[in-house]
Amino acid sequence: MNIKNLKTTAAAIITLGLSFAGQSHAGVLLNLIDPPGQSNTPTFLSFVASAATTDIVFAGYQVPSGLNATGISLTTGGGPNLLGPTWNFTPAGCGSIASQFDDGLGTGTNGLGFAGVCTGSYDQFDQAVATNAGQSYDVNFLFSNSGSNAPSGFMVSTDAADAPEPASAALLLAGLGGLAIHRMRLRAKASKA
Q1: Residue 192 falls within a domain, yes or no?
Q2: Is residue 18 part of a domain?
């Protein structure tokens, strides 16, 4: 591998890493800003999977009351719930107040509660689920907003989860660079001999 090919490969890997970095909430299924007060509103969302693994993401805030998503399930063709009981949690940058709890509704997946003290600062819960690219999936839950006049936001989205993270691409780039340097040194030794 010569220096020109190494630079081309490095540029391609850096570009690849940057393209994956911008995929946060790539497939927004629902985005509510200041929804009216309501209790246990049935919500049905659908998406077509684009990868072998998909992140299901629920995010929200409510100042100063609360939003809830309960009875959460992910199914395909009316089959069993594909979600596990617990969610991964990423706190809001400001005033994180969120919880997951057994909602007693029999789906086997914890319900989610969102509150907060900062407008626009979303707490986030997610689960990675094995999916088949090209297959349709349904996300079902009951939505409640106990503060009809308070600032609030609620979002449900999907992200393809099998793409490498930018840190993985950087590690790959470092490894390829090390291999290229090692190969140049071997060639230099061989030419001196």
Answers
A1: no
A2: no
Which of 135, 178, 183, 154 is closest to 62 using CA atoms?
154
Residues forming beta bridges with residue 47, ordered by sequence position: 137
Q: 3-class DSSP state for residue 125?
A: strand
Q: What count of other Cβ atoms lies within 10 Å of the Cβ of residue 7?
A: 11
DSSP 52: S
Domain count, the chain: 1
Model confidence over 51-66: pLDDT tens digits?
Answer: 999 999 999 999 888 9
Domain that holds residue 77: 28-162
For tokens 């939003």, name the residue: 67
Dist CA 163 CA 63 (whole Å):
35
Residues of the chain with pLDDT under 70: 1-26, 148-149, 161-180, 182-183, 193
Q: Are 63 and 89 in contact (CB under 8 A)?
A: no
Encode pLDDT of 158-178 as tens digits.
Answer: 997 644 444 444 555 556 566
Q: Domain with 87 in it: what CATH number?
A: 2.60.120
The answer to whether residue 15 is domain-embedded is no
The shares of helix, strand and coil residues in the chain, as percent rounded to the nearest 5, are: 25, 40, 35
Residue 149, helix vs strand vs coil: coil
- Side by side, which strands form the sheet with 98-101? 38-48, 136-145, 67-75, 111-114, 98-101
Is 173 inside a domain boundary? no
